[in-house]
């Protein structure tokens, strides 16, 4: 078994795949729980008064959690190999800048932004955008001097900037640096602030938790009129790139970093005897238990049965803690993940009445804590499947997109849909709007194509990296 936590790749892959799926299913003909809880069908208008979550509301938190869980593998390892903290901060800022550019570039080259109605010019430009992203973000496998690698990237960025400035957009739109993909922009902010916090607290969990407590105080005090905390909350040197409220997602990223440390410690000690000494019935029970906790919270909060949901959660969480109270190896890892997840789930449910119920937007503390807890459960679930039972082949469709998430995120909009339109078969998608089942099948088909293309590039070692 290689020294890699496949569960982490699978969690990231699950988040990306469901992100694509939720964006490609029929727009308004499916049940309400198939969309964000705050944008119900049939009109899909955003309603901030609606509380509760659906599986779609777990997609982004799970990806943020996976980002944080990768910090120990990308940051702590480099620090242990001799990189200075200053060097690591520089790399974090560079990554944030690259992701911000990525967010701006792709947003300007979605076909519906380029032309309305969409036409051949828009589809070809979208494909060109997809092609240019390769030299910008891949690590070229060919042997060449470092200066040549840098030159290729500089040229790619230069072409992208020229295209952004000279392209004619639909509806009189012009290039605007503030017009960006909000999902990627939030990830860029978390890549910078989450990494910097981890860099200076990687050797002290207490300090990391302390930073979150201070952040919570600022986020809450920032709502007080005419206070110094509100001045901090409202200040932004770059309104198109950063707002203080973005930092609320650190309550998902930082717990993710703790999960990553659990995984790293487990990998350092891992050997086959751990697998043999672990009772398989416990592994099966943990699959069922973690899955039950996730489903119960989704159903209970979506239907607003909050008291019943809490009552059901308590015995489920206690049984998991009791089941994993002793053991080493996998059991120790599962105990750490489950205990942290159980604490955050209960914390999130205790915050549920606060801020008008658990909501994704604006994100409430109940939402942030609960989704972090459910992410711990999902990581545990996937660790059992991917790393304990070693279901490598059957989970490859999750793991491989998880190793290439940037490509998986845009391949549908910048390659598949433009090609479908250029080939003249886009009109066939209309038939998927006949009923809810066909509407869901539409999303499955388009998501499957995105997964297959991403898997192909991953298999040939063509990764997009910042």
TrEMBL record:
It comes from the Bacteria. Keywords: Membrane, Transmembrane, Transmembrane helix. The keyword Membrane applies. Residues 4-263 form the DUF5009 domain. InterPro entries: DUF5009 (IPR032176). The chain crosses the membrane at residues 12-30, 50-71, 92-110, 122-138, 150-170, 182-200, 207-226, 246-263, 283-301, 307-325, 337-358, 364-386, 407-431, 437-457. Pfam families: DUF5009. This is DUF5009 domain-containing protein. It comes from Bacteroides xylanisolvens.
